[in-house]
Design brief:
Largest sheet: 5 strands, antiparallel
Oligomer: single chain
CATH topology: Immunoglobulin-like
Number of domains: 1
Distance between the termini: 78 Å
Number of strands: 8
CATH superfamily: Macroglobulin (MG2) domain
CATH class: Mainly Beta
Number of helices: 1
Order of helices and strands: HEEEEEEEE
CATH architecture: Sandwich
Strand content: 35-45%
Shape: elongated
Amino acid sequence: MRRRALAVALCAALLLITAAPAEAFVAHLKAPTHHPKAGKPWRIKVSARKRSGKPVRAKATYKFIYQGQVVATRYPSPHNKQCPNTGQRHEPWRFKGSYRDTICWPKRSVGVRLKFRVLIKTKHQKKHVDYKVRVKN
């Protein structure tokens, strides 16, 4: 009976060790200003790293939020560096560590208080970084 209890306890301990959550990652968004100009390139940098600094593999998606509601979803296109962007992607951008992208804000967004959200997903976790934006003319 003791052997059986010991074996069950040992198996449970091994399951807990292997089911430990993946190491947390830190997401960052760097942008030049909270007031981008409509029709002009707004260059950003997105990064995802472990706390130790090691880059992680992830996928990124953009959400545009107005008064708490998602009004648009877009996907990064780091190879489009011109405004207006051409050849929009239709799936999240896969990256390791970081990437740079150029956002072109449309004229209709001038003066509107928006939240630019970058949603970053790894294999085991997801996080988002919010950036308040008010587009200028």
